[in-house]
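ugh ok fine here u go
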Amino acid sequence: MKIIDGGVTSAKGFEAASAAAGIKYQGRTDMAMIYSKKPCKTAGAFTTNLVKAAPVIWDKTVVESGVKSHVVVVNSGIANACTGEKGLRYCSETAKKAAEVMGVDANGVLIGSTGVIGMQMPMDKVTAGIEKLADTKQATREAGHLAAKAIMTTDTKEKEIAVTIEIGGKTVTVGGMAKGSGMIHPNMCTMLSYITTDAAITKKALVKALKADVKDTYNMISVDGDTSTNDTVLVLANGMAKNPKIHCGTAEYQLFLEALHFVNETLAKKMAGDGEGATALFEVKIVGAKSKKQAKVLAKSVVCSNLTKTAIAGHDANWGRILCAMGYSGENFEQDKVDLFFESAAGKIQLIKDGVGLDFDEEKATMILSEPEVTAIADLKEGNEQATAWGCDLTHGYIDINADYRS
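structure:
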């Protein structure tokens, strides 16, 4: 696998565009389009929140119908959530307009929205925006980059990645873009992620790959413990790499899954590290667990602990908060076996051995915790399973952003 400089336009046949439609924001782009020259097989994963935004309901229907897709239209600023029957009508109108200007089947148009919940969509601006997108779509790296910027809300940076692999003598590319900064919690989040690939792959294999991978990537991140109404991950595969078709259970499927996992994990970590008001990506690794479930539950519990997150913000090696979060997770473990470490680019330090705190160099610990990426490693010494979760520190900036988000 080779990492390349790219995003959603890196795979063959994909184009992108961005536009300033004035849906909520002024002076910036707020709509994006992804377009494939060839029809795409699709797979999707969506929020587990009972309250689902209209685009989530729309996309889930499209993906499950088996209709192939050419176009994804995304807006930022307004979430089109809790908008009743009007919200689904907005999706239908958006799809019909995109189908009209792009010459595709409206039943296969996918839609994404992110922003304020409860506001109605200004459809005159949306339809005008679609026309702009259709006129300016390109296959360039810059077009993909600008599309990634257009879907941002409180994000401070765009999130993109692309890789290539070799299958049957053909170069297959997997690229993606995502947005997400707040209302992020395991079980999908206000996160949108769009993955494009030119792989020739069966619908069954594509769906299976995404379903398997979401559990270890997007569902292992948390910023604030709030599971959004709009979480969506979509994968579009147009087959233009002309590789031998990938089927479930083959070596080629495993290779594709590894590439998809790298793209998904990279985007998930970018979202966690760009949490609202955050200054650091906080990674939690549970190793030596007796089961995958035990490791996942413990990792999530620590990464979601507000007390631990504030300690990371203060560069304070307050390890008791980590052990405490593990203790209330609901999973059993032997406290007297646990070893705990902090690690970053500045070094590694052990804080607990066999469940008991050690005398450690506070100055060195502070230095380690002052890096922009910090890892806590808890070794249970009970087995061979492990899991990783990602979050961020919790600062005053989170409150500043969310106290007046609607304005």
